[in-house]
Amino acid sequence: VQLVESGGGMVQPGGSLRLSCAASGFAFSKYDMTWIRQGPGKGPEWVAAIKPGGASQYFPDSVKGRFTIARDNAKNTLYLQMNDLKPEDTALYYCARGGAIGVDKRGQGTQVTVSA
C-alpha cells in the first residue's frame, strides 16, 4: 500500500490549494478514503472522508463550505480542494485509507501553510 500526497505549499489567507493523493498497491475504488491534518502542536484532526461511490462527510465545522473532497477511481487518486484558506488551516495534511471509524494506512503528508 502506498499513498503519496502532493499539492501543498504556502498561500496567503483567502487563497486556494488542491491536494492530491496517488494511491497504489490496493483496490482503491473499494475503500473509504480520508484526509487528516495535524497542525503545529496539535493532535490529528479528521478533515473529510469519502466513500467509494462518492458520498462525502466533513468533520470540523470550520471547513464546511470551503473544502471539497473528491476521488477519481479510474486514476486511483484522492483530492482535497481547499478554498478561502485561513491561518488556522496550517497543518500537515495526509491522506489515509479508511473512514470515520478508523484508518489503517496513511501517507507521509504534504505541508500547507497559510500566512500573510
Q: How would you concisely characterize the structure shown here?
A:
The protein is an all-beta fold. It has strands spanning 2-6, 9-11, 17-24, 33-38, 44-50, 56-58, 67-72, 77-82, 91-99, 102-106, 110-114.
What does the model show?
This protein is an all-beta fold and 116 residues long. It is 0% helix and 54% strand. It contains no helices and eleven strands. It has strands at residues 2-6, 9-11, 17-24, 33-38, 44-50, 56-58, 67-72, 77-82, 91-99, 102-106, 110-114. The strands form two sheets. Strands 2, 4, 5, 6, 9, 10 and 11 form a seven-stranded mixed sheet that branches. Strands 1-3-8-7 form a four-stranded antiparallel sheet, with no helix packed on it. A hairpin with a 2-residue loop joins strand 9 (91-99) and strand 10 (102-106). The radius of gyration is 13 Å and the shape is globular.
Spell out the blueprint of helices and strands:
Elements: E1 2-6, E2 9-11, E3 17-24, E4 33-38, E5 44-50, E6 56-58, E7 67-72, E8 77-82, E9 91-99, E10 102-106, E11 110-114
Parallel strand pairs: 2-11
Antiparallel strand pairs: 1-3, 3-8, 4-5, 4-9, 5-6, 7-8, 9-10, 9-11
Distance between the termini: 37 Å
Low-pLDDT residue spans: none
Largest sheet: 7 strands, mixed
Q: How would you spell out the order of helices and strands? A: EEEEEEEEEEE
Hey, roughly how much beta strand do the residues contain? over 45%
- Which geometry do the CA atoms define? globular
Descriptors:
single chain; 116 residues; mainly beta; seven-stranded mixed beta sheet; four-stranded antiparallel beta sheet; 11 strands; 54% strand
